[in-house]
Specification:
This protein has two domains: 56 residues, no CATH class; 37 residues, no CATH class. It is mainly alpha-helical and 102 residues long.
Length: 102
């Protein structure tokens, strides 16, 4: 996945030195003009796909990792002997998974 750098703004510093005009304009005695990194401002614009991924991540933060109601239901059915396993369905899903992996 690539990173879209279009729309990034900010001031870039250069390794070149500049002389400032004024009292120290004698040859070889110029002062260097530079801005500190804290005074620069950069911004990043996310692509549409990155924005969707960010929204999905935020939505998933509120979803519990375990469906407690479903676990309780299955546990009760196992304890009561009412939980049935469909061998054919499990075999079909394993075959489908294997086909998708290759």
């Amino acid at each position: 996945m690539g990173i879209n750098l279009q729309g990034i703004t900010g001031k870039q510093t250069s390794s070149k030195t500049k002389q400032t005009s004024g009292s120290s304009s004698k040859k070889g005695t110029g002062s260097v003009s530079s801005k500190s990194a804290s005074s620069q401002s950069d911004s990043v614009n996310l692509t549409g796909a990155a924005s969707l991924i960010q929204k999905a991540e935020q939505a998933l933060e509120n979803v519990p990792l375990v469906d407690v109601d479903h676990v309780d239901d299955v546990s009760k059915r196992i304890a009561n002997g009412q939980y049935e396993i469909d061998d054919k369905q499990i075999a079909e899903k394993l075959i489908d998974l294997e086909k998708n992996l290759s």
